[in-house]
Specification:
homodimer, nucleotide-binding (chains A, B), about 575 residues, Rossmann fold, alpha+beta, five-stranded mixed sheet, YbaK protein
Chain lengths: ~575, ~575
């Protein structure tokens, strides 16, 4: 500690939003270089390297091979897959001195696809899994929470290449198993959830989330079955169509002063009361207008119909439409569509075939035969008993309505959903053939016929993992690392002024080091009090803290478990053996 | 080999200029992603990682601490040191989505200085050596020779921080010793030479060059003493001033048709013969006009006087003037200076005090009292017996004249210089206080006074080392790695079709692997002939090649040294032990 390049801080950094960020800066693990861009100090780099080493071991064990692509990449391959455009402002672009276009790689699907195309030509070469651990770049609109959402970050990205879907499923399973081993070894609580597939299509996709209140991802789990999914990936089970032969004809009614669902429901119950049960928000059809911003800059209006008791969830909506971004339709844009009557918009004015021509997508619950109260496209008027399939037909469905605690599980239809928050730490993904098609990756099959290869894509963020593990394990007094990723095994504190204390501490450190134990030794003399040393040790968060102090006169030292705070007096003669067994479990 | 992600190529790649580049591509170590930007395939990555590991071990052993800075850096620190401007077109610049200016780090002096300023405040904290191994970026005008001059490359850069010059000298020596250990372990021929100090001043500076004909650097060694220097760093020993009381007055003579040194010398010998010895090129003073391009875009004319038997060496000139670039003065620029008469330019028209106002610097050999024949600034006329200090006084001296084999050694003044070419693999450098001053890095000294810290800067390029080592060790049939950096210890070739061959080879591979030997095993069956396997093994260049083939029937295998081609028949029972001892020496 007297020579280690570290200084702990008493005060929280101004820009730290979450506990892990505060503590990683205070304990001297990282420093901010620019928004979303961090420098790794020696302690932080050790944790990062340990995480990388665990990932590397498990990837190698499953037969994946490591290689390394540049971070600075030419535009052309990303043009071929359209991602140069699709990423919009989310990637860093630059030109070289000759005006050539380059980007800083956000992920490397293109480069991996091309290198396999370069080297391989036959089904006999497959399956193949290759990976790299490398800096990646995204120009996030809102970098946040320290390492949790950075603009330069470390990624392990791997890709599998198979001749057919069965092969892809097998490669996916191999990766899934390896990821489970990795996350188990990292030593923190995580959950595997269904995920959406992102920009380039594809089929099965799962995320590994660290459970964390500060997480940006919300996921749901079923109370009854083992269903778990990122809310963006929750698929509403559409009910069966309902017969509507007996349904009364749709009838427009005056509903003055009811531009919101609440005012409408109140008005309905006051003016048109029903016998069986009162009108509720869920009886109404809410039509929300948004504007889609395509990556090429074009803008497109879209109407989304959801039951009146639901909101449109922007993240779920964007999850469906990626890489398109979505924003609310503003007054100026609204004014361009005279068919739309604010507060009283109804299906009559919506749809590609309607006067407005605005595409109209609805929640999957809005199936044929269901009846709704909805806007009449006349100020102060709604239509009652509008029946889907009889009175209007939407252009399609979309998963945009919010998911709520208590919603029926779409898997078992018995349990209900409960939500929690998490940090995305891994994502595995059956990518399919889109990249191979775009870049012409084909191999000869057994019959000498060219077939397009199918791919999987698998990512873990080691730098984000540093923060997520810190976040998931820290306590009131500091960081509290799981053993496998801690910057050292043992933190030895020489607490006192006597030479005897330092002499014994040094011999203990030498002894432990010889046995392969990584020791952080607080050898500071002079003005640094034992209290300051203990506070530093607690902040830094090495799992075992050994104090060589006053007890030495009685022939004992203290061995403390940083997490449980359990403390044991150990005779100096047994010290090394005791510590080694504490470390090795 | 049946599953390794590698394919060897029979043909040389089109864009490969040097043997190492050709072979690294053909043997499946690297692939080009863009000009000067390469992807590392598994074999190449292994060599790179081994080099990095050796560097890391030696840096850690000397007490340097590893950290890691971003590659994507904000402009501000580089503005403070002026390098944002000084680098001119040689760095990659970009803007983020908010218009903030960033660069891809070419070296990290600024970031290291700032992090020490952030953490440290007292002389007690020093000395400190910190380092990183990381991707760096330079937008080279002419990337060439594969990994030898890339635009994205790996660098180990370290920096030392000391309170005073003695401390810096000690830190420099520690690094120098560590570098010697590193380069010894890498296992190839290198030489340590004096070097120039680059953009930001500084004092002592040495380079570690790999001896290589394809190298971009030319260095000289003395035949007599241990002097060795990059030609850019050779300092001519200025002779003593000569008394000129007896010198005849300068006299202009007609020398029609003598715009070149050769025509002038012929004319002098024909028209003004001397008694003691004939006129030679070395008696004339050649005045060369160039234009300096400052990083901020301004242009400045400069006149350089060298003895007529020497040329102005652009690299030596630029080495003195860095970051200024130099180009020849073109006709248009020349025409702006009416005082200059092409082919007959003399000191009378040069110098800051002259009519032209052009700064006039001369070779250090042109000392006071020396006599020269030089242009009279009149067409067809030269002045003879122009004496320095009497007839003209230059504005200063500059090391711009070329260095030649046979030149007197400037160190011992006895031996002569011999030149050779090399590849710069390491550079150690007493940087001094310029960065600390620019960025305000001060600490309190023993008396509580703020003093500016002095720094050293030390770099090795691991990615360039891969190519330089390949270049220095390859032979006619392929790569030929030194043991410490080879992608494997042993290449086992199963040569034949019998199951017995594969069975024994597999058991041998398992046996060797268990003993910690890294084996590349050519297990390919089917159409791959033994000849193809041998060619691949020779190309890939693992130091020991073991053939399990026809000899197996007689109970022997062949162990071959890739470098010496020495082959030994070894009894199968002794095979593993024999190979282990061959590997471990």
């Amino acid at each position: 500690m007297s020579t280690l390049f570290v200084r702990t801080l008493r005060d929280d950094p101004n820009d730290a939003e979450v506990p892990s960020h505060r503590l990683l800066v205070r304990a001297g693990y990282i420093r901010r270089a620019a928004p979303g861009i961090y420098s790794w100090l020696p302690l932080g780099l050790r944790v990062l390297r340990k995480i990388e080493a665990i990932i590397r071991e498990e990837m190698d064990d499953m037969g994946a091979q490591e290689l390394s692509f540049p971070a600075l990449l030419p535009k052309e391959p990303y043009d071929a897959t359209n991602r140069w455009t699709d990423y919009g402002p989310n990637i860093f672009r630059l030109q070289d001195r000759k005006g050539g276009d380059y980007l800083l790689g956000p992920t490397h699907e293109e480069m991996f696809t091309l290198v396999v195309k370069d080297l391989y030509s036959s089904y006999k070469d497959l399956p193949l899994s290759i990976y790299q651990i490398q800096n990646k770049y995204r120009d996030e609109a809102r970098p946040r929470a320290g390492l949790l959402r950075g603009r330069e970050f470390v990624m392990k990205d791997s890709y599998s290449f198979d001749i057919d879907d069965a092969g892809l499923a097998a490669s996916y399973q191999l990766h899934r198993d390896a990821y489970i081993r990795i996350f188990d070894r990292l030593g923190f609580e995580y959950v595997i959830v269904k995920a959406t597939s992102g920009a380039m299509g594809g089929s099965a996709s799962e995320e590994f989330l660290a459970k964390a209140e500060v997480g940006e991802d919300t996921y749901v789990r079923c109370t009854h079955c083992d269903y778990a999914a990122n809310v963006e990936a929750v698929t509403v089970r559409a009910p069966e169509a309902i017969a509507y032969d007996d349904a009364p004809a749709a009838h427009a009614e005056d509903t003055p002063g009811t531009p919101t669902i609440d005012t409408l429901v109140d008005h309905l119950n006051a003016t048109y009361p029903r016998d069986d049960r009162p009108w509720a928000a869920g009886d109404t059809l809410k039509n929300v207008l948004v504007v889609l911003k395509h990556p090429d800059g074009t803008r497109e209006p879209l109407a989304i119909g959801v039951p009146g008791d639901r909101e449109v969830d922007q993240k779920r909506l964007e999850g469906q439409l990626e890489p398109i971004e979505v924003e609310a339709m503003d007054e100026a844009e609204f004014a361009k569509h005279p068919a739309l009557v604010k507060g009283y918009i109804g299906p009559g004015a919506l749809g590609e075939e309607s006067t407005s021509g605005i595409r109209f997508l609805v929640d999957p619950r809005i199936v044929e035969g269901t009846r709704w109260v909805t806007g009449a496209n006349v100020h102060g008027s709604h239509v009652i008993d509008m029946v889907v399939g009889r009175d209007f037909t939407p252009d399609g469905t979309i998963e945009a309505a919010d998911v709520r605690d208590g919603d029926t599980c779409p898997n078992c239809l018995e349990g209900s959903l409960e939500s929690a928050r998490g940090i995305e730490m891994g994502h595995i993904f059956q990518l399919g053939r889109s990249y191979a098609q775009a870049l012409g990756l084909q191999v000869l099959d057994e019959n000498g016929k060219l077939v397009t290869v199918t791919m999987g894509s698998y990512g873990i963020g080691p730098s984000r993992a540093v923060a997520a593990i810190a976040e998931g394990t820290l306590d009131d007094i500091g960081l509290c690392w799981p053993r496998n990723v801690a910057p050292a095994d043992v933190h030895v504190v020489a607490a006192g002024k006597d030479d005897a204390i330092f002499e014994f501490a040094e011999s203990l450190v030498a002894d432990l080091s010889e046995q392969g134990i990584e020791v952080l030794y607080d050898d500071r003399r002079g003005k640094v009090s034992p209290g300051v040393k203990f506070k530093d040790a607690e902040l830094i968060g090495v799992p075992t803290i050994v104090t060589v102090g006053r007890g030495l006169a009685d022939g004992t030292i203290e061995v403390r478990d940083r997490r449980t705070d359990e403390r044991q007096e150990v005779a100096v003669g047994d010290a090394a053996a005791h510590i080694v067994s504490a470390v090795r479990g």
